C-alpha cells in the first residue's frame, strides 16, 4: 500500500525540520568559541594561570589590580572561552586567548571566603613576551570589555565563571600557600 501524497509530504517536511535543527545545532557548536577543544583549553588555562600568578606587583597594577606590597601570593582560576585566530587548534597557533579569571590574594589571617579578589574577562596576547590586558573597572567597564573582546565572544565575556573544578583547584592552592 502506498502512502498518500499529502501524508508523505508531511513526513518529508518533519524530516527536513529535524535535519535542519540538527545541522543548526552542530553549526552553532562549531561557531561558539566557548567549546574549545579540551586539550587546547587545558593548556591555555595552565599558561594564563602561570602568567597571572607569576606577574610582578607592577604588572598587576597595569592590570588594574591594587593591593598592599606584602599582601601575599596571588592565586588564580582561569576559564578560556575563545581564541584568535578562530580556527586555532593548538597553542602554537593561538595569537590571543580570551578568558574569564578570578584571582585571590593570600595574606595574614585571610581565608578563601574573605580574600581580596579580582575577576572578569581578560585577553592575553601570546607573542615574544605575553601581554595580559584586563579592562579597567569603574564607569564605562562594559564598553571597555566590548572593545577588548571580539564581538563574536561578547556573550561569553559577560557570562559567569562556570568552571567549578578550576575554582576548587585555585581554592586548594590558596589554602596551601597560606
UniProtKB/TrEMBL annotation:
It comes from the Bacteria. This is DUF3105 domain-containing protein. It comes from Nonomuraea harbinensis.
Amino acid at each position: 500500500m502506498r502512502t498518500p501524497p499529502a501524508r508523505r509530504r508531511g513526513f518529508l517536511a518533519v524530516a527536513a525540520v529535524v535535519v535542519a535543527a540538527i545541522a543548526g545545532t552542530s553549526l552553532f557548536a562549531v561557531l561558539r568559541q566557548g567549546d574549545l577543544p579540551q586539550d587546547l583549553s587545558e593548556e591555555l588555562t595552565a599558561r594564563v594561570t602561570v602568567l597571572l600568578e607569576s606577574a610582578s606587583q607592577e604588572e598587576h597594577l597595569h592590570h588594574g589590580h591594587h593591593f598592599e606590597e606584602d599582601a601575599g601570593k596571588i592565586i588564580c582560576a582561569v576559564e578560556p572561552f575563545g581564541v584568535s585566530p578562530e580556527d586555532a587548534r593548538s597553542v602554537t597557533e593561538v595569537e590571543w586567548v580570551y578568558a574569564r579569571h578570578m584571582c585571590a590574594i593570600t595574606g595574614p589571617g585571610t581565608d578563601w571566603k574573605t580574600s581580596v579578589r579580582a575577576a572578569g574577562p581578560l585577553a592575553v596576547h601570546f607573542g615574544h613576551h605575553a601581554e595580559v590586558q584586563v579592562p579597567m573597572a569603574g564607569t564605562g567597564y562594559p564598553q571597555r570589555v566590548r572593545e577588548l573582546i571580539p564581538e563574536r565572544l561578547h556573550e561569553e565575556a559577560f557570562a559567569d565563571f562556570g568552571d567549578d573544578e578550576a575554582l576548587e583547584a585555585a581554592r586548594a592552592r590558596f589554602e596551601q600557600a597560606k
